[in-house]
Write the structure tokens for this entry.
Amino acid sequence: MAHGRGREHSRRGRVRGRLRGRRVAPRLVSDCRSVAALEYHRWLGVTAAIAAIIAALTIGEMDDRPSRQWRYRVALFSAAALVAVAGHFGAVLVWGADFLRSR
């Protein structure tokens, strides 16, 4: 019972996040570079989600064969790298291009 409720909260959180992103994005995009950062952020996020799904699907095929373990690891670390890069572009949108050097 609690497991189903957790899934519902997760689903609502994803929907709220998407709606908020669609609402806030036009205010954040003020120049050509921001438009590019928004597109990179959006599509890297979609690609990361697909890589995570692939990793989840390949875990069901895991056995002692190194090739299957290798596929899972590649999908998992690819998803993690894509999330990191998408997060960077999200931070560029919110905090500006110099957010790493501003201190």
Notes: The mean pLDDT is 75. The chain has three helices and no strands.
